[in-house]
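Q: I'm writing up a methods section and want to include an example of the input and output format. Could you take the sequence below and give the corresponding predicted structure tokens, formatted cleanly so I can copy it straight into the document?
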Amino acid sequence: MHMSTAKLEVTRTGSGVRIGYDGAPMVVETGAGIPLGGRWWWSFDGSLRLVDASEEEGSDQLGAYTALALTYRDQDGPLIRQALKTYADDSSLVVETTALRDLWDAALVDSFFHTTFNSPVVRLADGLRYLVYTWGLADNEGVGIGGHFPDAAVAPDLESLPERLRLADFSPTTDVHHRGEKPFAPLIAYDRQERTLVMAPLDHLLISPLRLLPTPSGVGVARGLHGGVDAIPAGTTTHTSLVFGQGVVATMQKWGDLLLRLSGKRRGQGRDSLLVRSLGFWNCYGSYYAELFRPVGATTLRALSAYFREAGVPVRYIGLDLWYDYGQVGFARRYEPDAAKYPQGLKVVFEETGLPFLLHMSAFDLANGYLDSYQFVADEGSSYPVDPRFYRDLAREFKAWGAMGIWPDFLRTQLQNSAPCGATWATRMGGLTAWSSPWPRKGWR
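A: Here is the clean output for your methods example:
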């Protein structure tokens, strides 16, 4: 069974497929690895057995596709369906994996250094070089702000990637150079002619790392779910992109275009954004936190905007941190303008200065002011909204006040302090910026 689209070739091999681009092998084998009840089920050793393979056609948000659908089963029956979708006149492939029954006891360790529901797992061709971006998460995450800053790792081959991952850390306080199994996303693999593959999750983004995974056939790159996810309901579906192209930068742009198409957006020019074509005033700075010793309020912003006009300084927006009601930094009680700083609200400041806002958002206090109006879940010191309508409602308010966007902060705290399947992750906020959808998500058509 063989599918070919432009320069992309997808060919059945063993229990998975082989993928070539522009006449060169890129992926030598695809498969899956599912831990259940402490046992691993692998397509690579036949314990996860391929029982059906068929071609089908259809259309989705990315357009018309031809798919190779592979069904795998364990001793108890059909387990997952893996559909590899290729699109006309394109070099992108989307792997859609669906749980065919309720999967229980899937958890391994409460850490991103371990993953469950690994599909696809790809074994890559020899001769490729690698560029990956770590998640900046420490192993055995606990309560509080932990981990380290994300970093890039460049490796000349797959064998040396773990050591490069081990060194790809930064922490201002501790030595974190101790593990080579760090999660990452995306993966960029390229050969000497810069034939390039970009692999990345397309959904459930904050609980879906890529990682190096030993398989019965050798080391592969797996897209999985956080190692603490224990129950995967029937119908749970993940989507993973494998985007092929010529040149690392050009292929990364193709991947970006695919993400834009999924969200119904079109690529703009970088200079179209106020963030890069003009200056902004921010009340927090990278070198020190000015807001803590010189709070910024409406009076200060009025004076600053008048100075900017008189001096001809092209400031075109204001980045506001800690503008809302909070008790502890990083945990909002309510997203309403601080009455002491902005007694007439933000809208009046916007109308007087003509400068739109980029508003900071953080995690939520356990005793936040939205509990009577929206459903929240509480977990280890924080609370999290369940209904994504909450963010759309906030977006309408923010836009009415003169906001052009938001800047989400403390996502690390939110991710670390909540059970992966218990929270709703916002990734789409009424046109202000991009946010995510609740997990698990069923279907994608």
